[in-house]
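Comment thread on ticket #2218

A.B. wrote:
> Attaching the input chain for the structure job we discussed in standup.
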Amino acid sequence: MITKTFLVLALFFAVHEWSVLQIAVSLLCACNSCFSAAAWYTMKKRKMFLPVFILWGEAIFTPIFIVRETVIICFIAFTSMLISFLRLLKVDAYVFYHPVSAKLLIKHTKGTGSIFLYLLRYLITNKNYLLNTAGLCVIAGVMPFILGQFEGINVMPLGFAVLCLNTSICILLSCDPGLEQAVRTLPGQAKRFCTNYCFFIFSVNMAVNSVYLISWQIGKSGVNSTEIITALIIALQSAVLSVLLEWFCPVRNWKIENDLWHHPRKYIVPLIMFLVAGLIGMWSINIWVLLCIVIAEVLSLSLVVRRI
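C.D. wrote:
> Ran it. Output below, let me know if you need it in another format.
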């Protein structure tokens, strides 16, 4: 609630005028989401988890996206939160304790090969990281129906900024000191690795952004070349800054993987992307300016790679 949810709600409350009732309902839904996620986590090993998860999720999302009655939404959210709370009272707290060193999650292979394939394999073989990316795709599919309710301001670029918060793929060197030492020690590896690493993050960002664009086109329409180029700019800028942070300011002296996932450094890039998205949305920059920005991004990336 404090490190993630409140920050997103504060952004929404800042860019649009909200009534007291709307703020109260939003906070109730946010609390319900946190309680429900914790309750679902405690049931993930049960046989009936999937049917319960689907029915419970449908009961929550149906009144929000179909009925759209405030009283019904509040009743469903409060009921769900109450059931989750009663469920959590009966659960041992140690069910949430899952200490796994990030070193054990990464599988190295011997010999030479494609760095991009190594990074892709790194993402696929770590279920938590893959689920985090899949979760962003789900958020990308739902977000147009939330942001699309704002009128009088172009809020679409803000969605790209939110979707670049993929912590798992941006901590590769931090979570594997052995890999970092090898990359920094072997000649020529820094340039080769950082270039592929940047392209890898950019590819993942664009995959999530594509889901967002498709969902926006289906639900709200109005996606054109300007929005696509905006997605490219934010995805590329996010990838460049994330790689630079990992190279020059890796997270050190961490003890468990959770320290990496919740390190304050992860908010630096999304915050910058929020500013960029806000400027693009307010100024309504045309396609030619956006193309110039993309070219400048590629040139700056090539210069940085040369210096590395």
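A.B. wrote:
> Thanks. Noting for the ticket: The chain has a mean pLDDT of 80.
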